[in-house]
Amino acid sequence: MIGKVAGRIDYIAEDHALIDVKGIGYLVYCSERTLRSLPRAGEAVALYTDLLVREDNLQLFGFTSLVEKEWYRLLLTVQGVGAKASLAMLSALGPDGVSRAIALGDWGAVKAAKGIGPKTAQRVVMELKDKAPAIMALGAGPAPDMGQDDDVLEDIAPVSAPVAQVGGAAQSEALSALSNLGYAPSEAASAIAQAQENGGGEDTAALIRQALRLLAPKG
C-alpha cells in the first residue's frame, strides 16, 4: 500500500497531478479543492495517498490531510458511492464541510455535490453520522512530519496543507468536553457543527458554551 507520496509537481491536470519522485512519476487523483491547493509545477509537495485496486486498473488518490483521507475512505463504505462520488463530495464541501453536513444530518448540503442524488445523500448522512465525531477529532492532532526524507527526496523539502488548524483543535477539545459531560458523540458533534455554523469559530470555551446552549432542554 502506498500511504504517502513526496516529490515535485510535474503537472496538474483537471482531475489529477503527476508527482515526480526521483524520476518515477506517480499519477495521483485528487479533489478539485486539493488540486487548487497544490503548489506550481516544479515545486515540492507531499500528499497522503490511498491506492484503489481493481481487476483492470490501479488508481492512486491524494489528500492534503488525514481528515480528507479518512472521509474519502468512509464515504466509499456507503452503498452507491465510488471514488468519483467521494471526491465530488470533498470537492464541493471540503473535509470540514463534509464533517459539518454529516454531523448536522444536512443531506441537502451533501446533495449539492456533482452527481449525488437525494437518496445517496440521505444514505451517506444516515450511515456515517455516528462516525463523524471521530473524524472531526482528527483535525486537532499534531501535524505529521511531511518533511525531508533522504532516501526519497534528497534535498527536496515537501510542503503540504497542515493537518492541524486552530478551529480543528477547538472542535476536538469541545467534543472531548461534551463527551465527558455525558453527551453522546453524535449529539455532541451535531451541536458543535451547528455552533460553528452560527459563528462559534476557533475559541474552545466559546464553542462549548454555544454547543451547551443548543443541547439544553427546550421549554
Description:
This protein is α+β, with helices and mostly antiparallel strands and 219 residues long. The chain has three domains: 4-64, OB fold (Dihydrolipoamide Acetyltransferase, E2P) (Beta Barrel), CATH 2.40.50; 66-135, DNA polymerase, domain 1 (Orthogonal Bundle); 166-215, Helicase, Ruva Protein, domain 3. 46% of the residues lie in helices and 18% in strands. It has a five-stranded mixed barrel with strand order 1-2-3-5-4. The N and C termini lie far apart (54 Å). Residues 170-219 are annotated as: Domain III. Residues 170-216 form the Holliday junction DNA helicase RuvA C-terminal domain. Its main location: cytoplasm. Belongs to the RuvA family.
End-to-end C-alpha gap? 54 Å
Q: Would you tell me the overall average pLDDT?
A: 83
Number of strands: 5
Helix count? 9
**Quick one: CATH superfamily of the largest domain?**
5' to 3' exonuclease, C-terminal subdomain
Shape by Cα distribution: globular
Helix content: 40-55%
Strand order of the largest sheet: 1-2-3-5-4
User: What's the helix-strand series?
Assistant: EEEHEEHHHHHHHH
Supply the number of structural domains: 3
C-alpha Rg, in Å?
18 Å
Point out poorly predicted stretches. Answer: 140-166
Named CATH architecture of the largest domain: Orthogonal Bundle
CATH topology of the largest domain: DNA polymerase, domain 1
Indicate the structural class. alpha+beta
CATH class of the largest domain: Mainly Alpha
Instruction: Estimate what percentage of residues fall within beta strands.
Output: 15-25%
Q: Characterize the main sheet.
A: 5 strands, mixed, barrel
